[in-house]
Q: What sequence folds into this?
């Protein structure tokens, strides 16, 4: 598992591949956040909030060679999920990044450190050259987390965006505009050499 040392006042964050044994804990986390998910992820069905539904979700991801699903952890407990979709599906050797952090862990630097860990996996382990991410223009906390992780805004897209095998994201408001962000391996390595947004424990990191 990749881990990030806590920022000042923040909790230690980990990122690892999910597995079927995580299904009950994922279901419980999402179940405790139903009201928030109803706004942020309106595609969630009743099945999504069950352990069986989460097992099915994990299996679908594992069958997709171009997707990697992971859980964000805080002190070992699941605090969110993160996905890489369409891995290496284009000539740019890129992937789409998606993430969701449980409300109780928001505004504590968890997303920022998880994003940095995901970049380490994408660039150092998977050999990708670029990461892309889209975020609703009104979700300032999310796009600020991307910017703290070194992502640069390259444009704004109008209309809803369908997600990949893992992310399955929808805008909270149909038609909501989204900022488009990207991070290159070169820029990420330059930031890491300069100190970067997070210091990591490099004893291990997950593969796909």
A:
């Amino acid at each position: 598992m990749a881990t990030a040392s806590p920022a000042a006042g923040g909790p230690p964050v980990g990122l690892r591949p999910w597995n079927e044994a995580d299904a009950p804990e994922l279901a419980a986390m999402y179940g405790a956040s139903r009201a928030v998910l109803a706004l942020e992820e309106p595609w969630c069905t009743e099945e999504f909030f069950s352990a069986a539904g989460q097992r099915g979700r994990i299996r679908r991801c594992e069958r997709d060679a171009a997707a990697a699903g992971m859980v964000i952890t805080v002190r070992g407990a699941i605090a969110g999920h993160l996905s890489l979709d369409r891995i290496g599906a284009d000539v740019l050797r890129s992937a789409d990044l998606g993430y969701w952090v449980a409300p109780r862990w928001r505004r504590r630097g968890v997303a920022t450190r998880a994003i940095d860990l995901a970049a380490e996996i994408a660039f150092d382990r998977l050999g990708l050259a670029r990461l892309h991410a889209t975020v609703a223009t009104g979700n300032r906390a999310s796009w600020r987390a991307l910017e703290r992780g070194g992502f640069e805004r390259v444009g704004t897209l109008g209309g809803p965006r369908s997600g990949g095998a893992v992310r399955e994201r929808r805008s909270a408001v149909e038609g909501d505009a989204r900022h488009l962000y990207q991070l290159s391996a070169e820029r990420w390595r330059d930031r890491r050499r300069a100190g970067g947004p997070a210091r990591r424990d490099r004893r291990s990191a997950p593969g796909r």
Remarks:
- The chain has one domain: 2-197.
